[in-house]
Structure formats: structure tokens, C-alpha cells
Amino acid sequence: MGMKNAKDLGYTGVELSLLDSEKVKQEWLMDKLEELNLKVYTIATGQTYYTDGYSLYSEEEDKRQRAVNRVKGHIDFAARLGSAVIIGGIRGKITAQAEGFKELEEKGMIALRACVKYAEGKGVILLLEPVNRYETNIINTLDEGLSLIEEIGSDHLKLLPDTFHMNIEESSIEESVVRAGSSIGYIHFADSNRLAPGWGHIDFPRVISALKKIKYSGPVGIEVLPKPDDYKAAEQAFRYMSSITKKVRI
Amino acid sequence: MGMKNAKDLGYTGVELSLLDSEKVKQEWLMDKLEELNLKVYTIATGQTYYTDGYSLYSEEEDKRQRAVNRVKGHIDFAARLGSAVIIGGIRGKITAQAEGFKELEEKGMIALRACVKYAEGKGVILLLEPVNRYETNIINTLDEGLSLIEEIGSDHLKLLPDTFHMNIEESSIEESVVRAGSSIGYIHFADSNRLAPGWGHIDFPRVISALKKIKYSGPVGIEVLPKPDDYKAAEQAFRYMSSITKKVRI
Fold this sequence. Notes:
2 copies of one chain form a homodimer. By secondary structure, chain A is an alpha/beta fold. The first copy, chain A, contains 10 helices and 7 strands. The A-B interface holds A 134-135, 167-173, 192-193, 195, 199-201 and B 134-135, 167-173, 192-193, 195, 199-201.
């Protein structure tokens, strides 16, 4: 959706989904954002996998390296924007079985550590997004994400729960949020069918209560399908969110 | 899970997942079932697509025909067993875009009609199972299933809602069940994470209420992952279902 529309609807910031930050007209984009007084909360990076096939857990050394380089480029841009960088779809999928699986898991960890180290140097937060079983086999639940974050042991790696994925993977959405607590660095709201909040059956007031319980004070991102069209989806999301809380910044 | 275990746990019947009914030792199986006093409520047919790649909506004429033949074989066996036959995964996925999509949709309808006609002749019910977006692009929601059933116009084609898929696809699980009403011929219970009911966050008492509202009097099938193992999953499902209702046969 156009940034102008987002601003007009009342949004304070946006998420940018970028293939390669080094090829983005950064100055032009930053001028535009300043003009509209919009923040960029996050840079989404999954396109690197979906479009080009490079991923942090790829079987091929070269593709892992290219994925790391893309993340580094996003981190550079994020440092300029004051944004965080999402590590979601760019993890890819582990295609090998058994022993091969473990081996790739270790290689992926090396790639991920390289990204985290670079982010630390630039003062940028990386957001690990658990994604449902159909899209990846690397980190589906918040608990799995927490274990990984603990293993890496950096305060520059945080968790990004997404309510659509949580609806499929978590035994209890609210309890998982509470358990994750201060490890949560950002959150995506989408309803159970990936439509705008209010058009599915997720109990968002309960999710908001859980966020309040852990004193989450960051923004809430809306990541939904552009249905019936992008404007209507963004409008519904903003109206619905405003109706259930005045206290959570969107 | 072994049929003996199912019987011991209290189940009155089972679902058989079969690749090719014509190659099943039908007499042996029927003796076994009689010995245990277990019914076969349904024959699941998805293996034909997952294992052999034949599907009702395949791009290849030959594969569509083989899928139809498999369904006919299952219908013959179902007639002997007094079972229904599920049309779920065997629909496959439509791989073509735009015009090609519509064309395959029509060819799939011809294949489906052939199955329905054969089922009518044998007095067997076919159960159309809506499946979530990640597994198919042919009938994801109950409403889409209802439209298809209406188009085919046979009382031998009924709907099979599955709560795991509904959790992803339906705006409201209960309202969809009520809307489908007497078109529902069977139902699968699985929790939001495909584990046994009670281990996820689906509100099953509300689903049961919806089923009572439409006066559904058939059995409830349990289709869950064998986690932590098959016996424990079946045990949890039976115990949980018994705890929430004494009135719905399992």
C-alpha cells in the first residue's frame, strides 16, 4: 500500500519489504518518509529467499553467504532509518533429513551469528520471526525462538511473534506471549485467515492484555493480505485496532 | 494406531487411509474389524495423490482417470464396509494460472461428477473435505465446499469440516458449521496445532454446541498427529472428548 495512504489512515510507521537494500534509492525514500513524517519500524527480508532462493540455512555455502550479505545490507539501511531487521522467511527451509538436518542447522547458526554480530556493531535489532510449519521447518513456535535466542546470547536478537502463525503453532497465543516476555521486540497482528484483524477469529483483546501484562511498549505491525483490496484492509486494521485499545501505538 | 488400541481406548470406529482398496486384503480386514466390533466410518484417499501423484484436478488426463479409478475402488470397498469415502487430498492442486486454472477446474469437476455418479449407484456417501490454503487451492472453506455441492446437486456428496483446517480458513468456526447445516456428513476434530483436542486452543465445546444446533447426529472422527506418540494422542483425544460431552458419539 502507498505510504501516503498509510499516513492518511493514521498509521505512524510502516514495514518495508526489500529484496536488496543496497539497490534501494535510500536518499529518495528517506526524503519521502520525512515528508510524510512516517517511521520505518521494520525491514522485512523474506524476498531474498522467495525471489532469489538465497537463505541462511541453504544447503549451498554460496547461497548462505549471499543471504548473509543481503542481511548486512539491510542492517546498514536500518541503522540509517532507526529500524529493526526481520529474520523470517530468509531462514529458508532445511531440505536434508536426520544427520544432514543437524549439519545444516549448525551451518545456519553460523550464518545467523554473523548477522547478529554485524547488527551489534551497527546498533540494530534483529527480529526472529517464528513461522508456521507449512512455510519453514526452522523455528515454528515462540518457545523454539526463545531457545535459539538464548543460545546466541545477544541482546540485539529479539523475538517477533505473528498472530497468524501463532494461531497455527501455539497451544495458547496469550500464554506464549507472556512466556516470551521481554524477549519480544516487535509483533505482527493478522487475523486467523491472514485478513485484517477483526475479520477472522483471533481474540485480539486477549492478545493486547498479554502484551500489557509483559509491559510491551513498542508498536504493533499489521501484516495482512490486501483483501478485498490493500486500502480497505489497512482501513479495517486501523479502525479495529483503535476500537479495541487506545493505549497500544500502531 | 493399531485397531486393537482404538478399541481398548473406547473408540467405536476408525478411519482407514488407503492407497488402493483393490489391493487391500478386504476379507482379512473385515474379519479383524468384526472380531473387534469396530466400524469403519470413513476411507481416506489422499495417499493416491501424496504417494502416486494422481489427482482429480491433475493437468494430465491419465492421472485424473487413475484418481477416479482409485476412488471407484474405494467406493466398492466402502459399500461392503458401510463407510463413506473422503474426497480431500486426492483433489490435488491446480498448477495452472488464470485461463488454465478455469479449464482444469472444469476437468476436475468432470472427474468429481464421475465419482459421485458411481457412489450414487453403490449407495455410498462421498465426503468433500475443505483443506487449508497451504495444502490445496481447490476448496479451502466450507462455503466454497457448499457451492460445489450445490453445483453437483447430489445427496450422495456431503461436507466434511476439519477443525484444524477451519481454524486457518473460517472467519468463525461455529458460524460456518451452522451455515453448512445438514450438508455436513462427517467431521474431523483436531486441535489448532493438529495435536489431539485439548492440546491447542480451539474452543471445542463451542464447536459441539454448533453441531447440536444443526442436529448433527453422526460420529466425530479424530485426525491428529501421532504426538507425543500415537497411543497417547488417541488416549488424550478420547478422554478430552468424553470430558466435554457425553452426547456426541466418538
